Amino acid sequence: MRKIFYSIVLLIGIFYSCKKTDIGVDNLDLTQSYRLKKEIHNPNERTEAVDSYFYNENGLISRIESVRRTFYVMHSGQVVDEIDTVLQTFEYTNGLCTKWNIQKKGSPFILDYYEFNYNTKNLPVSRIHYKKEAPTEYRSYVYDNSDRLIKVTDTVNTSQYRRYEFTYGKDNNIESIAEYNGNKITYVSLDDMVNYTKAIKGLPLSFAFDESYPSYPSYFSLSPHNKLIEVSQSGYGTKDTISYLYQYNEVGLPVNRKTSPGGATVIFEYEKK
Predict the structure, then answer these.
(1) Which pLDDT tens digit goes with each residue over 133-152?
(2) What angle do CA 103, 211, 153 make, to 5 degrees?
(3) Which of 39, 44, 151, 222 is least surrounded by Cβ atoms within 10 Å, i.e. has the fewest?
(4) What CATH number is associated with residue 10?
């Protein structure tokens, strides 16, 4: 598969201008009163996708309902326009997510589920992926002395087939991810706004790195703040540029993200607890 070299630029401040002490980094405590309720991708388009978030009585995420629309025209001229809904549900033990289920809405059958195990610091150290009740993949997590995730390894039938290593920079924000095959993603520039995943309580620390999370980009959820201004990915010399333009609310949580080229839009909706 062709590797691509990305330079991703986030343009901020056009829609919302405020001193650093008013929103963002210095206001993280205020975000605790907000929780994410909905993400709307490409609103009012044929490719619209909606992710809705539901919480239990303890304020922990209990369900994510993801609605995806498939629209295309076949060679015969027949138009295919389908709606598909996937449910992700979460089970907890002593406040920690220990099981994550995935199934089609309306179906009694669970397609996949994941079980998490934790260390004495309540950090996930392993995740087992099951299909049809049979374990298919084992993922392990390694942390440094500051409890930051530094390595993820995937194993199937005792054979390692995927590995990622993480480094961190200022304010404990993720700086780079190196893959086993030599590919490397580097987070070049950072901003001072709040990472929207901080408005979702209960997800395992590395959940957004566990691939099925509906939002892109995912890896940056390991950082405490939004922090996505410029990202580069090493490859075979090809270079693409993607720009992100954000709007923020009064506490620095993103409420709108636009991508250029392409014009893809994501709207984030929150509620106060």
Answers:
(1) 888 889 999 999 998 889 98
(2) 120
(3) 44
(4) 2.40.160.190
- Summarize pLDDT for 57-113 with one digit per residue, the tens: 999 999 999 998 777 778 888 877 788 888 999 999 999 999 999 888 888 788 889
| φ, ψ for residue 61, nearest 5 deg | -60, 130
d(CA 271, CA 74) in angstroms, rounded, equals 41
Provide the whole-model pTM.
Answer: 0.77
3-state secondary structure 133-148: CEEEEEEEEEECCCCC
101: left (phi over 0), alpha (psi -120 to 50) or beta: beta
Closest of 56, 39, 36, 62 to residue 199, by C-alpha: 36
In 3-state terms, what secondary structure has residue 26?
helix
pLDDT for 13: 28
Domain total of the chain:
1
Domain hosting residue 267, numbered range: 5-71+82-272
Contact 106, 87 (CB under 8 A): no
Q: Which residues contact 242 (CB under 8 A, 6 or more apart)?
A: 6, 7, 8, 9, 259, 260, 261
Q: Nearest CA to 228 among 70, 10, 4, 6?
A: 10
